[in-house]
Amino acid sequence: MSNLDRAPVPSVCGGRGFVVAEPVRELLSPRHVKLGESTEVRRLLPNLGRRMIGAWAFVDHYGPDDIADQPGMQVPPHPHIGLQTVSWLHQGEVLHRDSTGSRQTIGPRQLGLMTSGRAISHSEETPRQHARFLHGAQLWVALPDEHRHTDPRFEYHPELPEVTAPGLTATVILGELDGSRSPGTTFTPIVGADLALSGGTDVRLPLEPDFEYGVLAMSGEVRVDGVPVLPGSMLYLGCGRSELPLRAESDAEVMLLGGEPFAEELLMWWNFVARTQEEIEQARADWMEGSRFGEVKGYDGNPLPAPALPPVPLKPRGRTR
User: Fold this and answer.
1) Where is this region: Disordered (predicted)?
2) Of 25, 39, 146, 284, which is least surrounded by CB within 10 A?
3) Predicted confidence (pLDDT) per residue in 189-224, tens digit
4) What are the distances in angstroms from CA 34 to CA 21, 132, 252, 272?
């Protein structure tokens, strides 16, 4: 997954100085961004006032889009450093290719997890023969310093553990929820879960008080701790919660994202998560020169060129602007 902005704004994030230590209800509105030729996404992180939730540093929600007569998602080969990508679908398919040689079609509620480590490149596209609708989320997880130069790799997990209660089915994408753990590799204390709620369901979901959390609404009508959260928006919840009240006014689907507040200060620009401007500049130069990031084989098209760096110096700061 890629940030396809041709003039990306540097995002400074991380550090615990701005983490909200108590429960809050902070509604985050999305920014609309074009992803490829025919897909528009709603970008929730980084947001104007909120940069991260735990190690979650980037969240896009897209669809449901009717792509019966369209190519759907078409994202050319592009580079990443310092992060993991999470592909998560409710409808449709995405064909993933990367420079480690991985080629995998990812379907609804299957985990495609790519660890960029020191450097990787990949492409994403809707297969030529595809379902009518495309609906999902694309997310990044920042890697801590001791793991951000690890070897790149891709994981595919078609089956994931579930937590159930009357009216609720929770699929554990990453980390652990209520004793069930995802097989996906993680490098920080984190949780990601997909919650399917039947209309009229009232439930209290167990949480870790030391984690900060956010809830992304995917579909339907849902109240999160009493707050209506519309599809394509996210409610930031802060820390200090041992449980989360959820009520579905109709059949609804949301994603729970959380984790231990990320202590390090980060610098995020285009598709790179780094610590200094020099790292960003070197990664951009390596990509444009065709070194370090390998080759994505099989994609019908040219790699994505890197945009120009902004004229002002980049500097990592805190989690909020």
Assistant:
1) 298-321
2) 146
3) 999 999 999 999 999 999 999 999 999 999 999 999
4) 34, 20, 26, 19
